[in-house]
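Lab manual, section 2.4: Encoding a predicted structure.

Procedure: take the sequence of the chain (347 residues), apply the prediction step described in section 2.3, and record the output as structure tokens. A sample record is shown.
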Amino acid sequence: MSERADPATEWLVEAMDQEPHLKRLWCLDENSNARLPSGAPETLTIVSNRWDATETARVAGFTALFNDFDEQTLDQGPFDRVYCRVSKEKSLVHHLINLAGRHLKPGGELVLCGHKSEGIKTYCDKAARYLGASNKARKQGELYTARFQRGATLGAALPDNNYADARPTADHQGLTLHSKPGLYGWQKIDRGSELLWQQAHPILQERQPETLLDLGCGYGYLGLMTKTLPLNRRVMTDNNAAAIAMAQLNAERNAVNAEVIADDCARHIEEHFDAVLCNPPFHQGFSTSGDLTERFLQSAYQHLNREGVALFVVNQFIPLERKAKELFRRIETLIDRDGFKVVRLEL
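Recorded output:
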């Protein structure tokens, strides 16, 4: 898990520690940075859209499922408790509340936590109506927490925008791109990624790389745009389950030969590449983190061939050039426009 623990998730973990005898489900998404519960792994199932969190939990002995909260995988239920930290994506929060209702025992409890600015009070009102409960959010310091006991019958499910389903996002230069709620910028082509490709395309055409890594691929836009390059190997990787599913779907439907790998910043990918493309995230949950940029720079350095080229796009306020100085010999800002900059890096 992240070194920067999230207070809301820490509160949930403390609640889990107090109920080790119960059959429990923890829905752990990208915002949920905290330690693992201290004991009773045999009574806790963790489902997460984060590959790193899932692997950490598995190593610690928990039953941990890596997927985009696919309830078809939850044959361990019904549960006495379901724990959820409010997500950034409204459709996902509704999806998780609906999932909790369907997988809780009658009389079991949904435990929610989050900050007021994240809409927790509104979600609590909706959860109470759906579960047939009367509990309301309680303020605990900067957090709001709530427990909802599932009634004998459920109310109308919350509208989740068909969260689980892929849907066409854009037709772009011969590609049909699919995405889904829960992914950053899922309803459009990301402006930063598009700017990166505009700068990268002529460079890659000239260099004719044989291998390429799309680092933090999202639904796969950058990797898919290399379709016309004569690559022998194309690898797309991300830490997010929805990203992996959509990148794989897009590669198959657009007949792009790619290996899509779930991994934490390519940490377990050992090979080197002639080219690396990267639009690194700078959000970790609800907060921004400059450390993420450094991690992606380090990964690009570790995976780049000696004569290779890495191309990054970042927000203008991120000092990527300064951060890259200790790793790369050539650092060139190719364009600085519309809030983004594209930087070329070579060893």
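Check your result against the sample. The longest strand covers residues 304-315.
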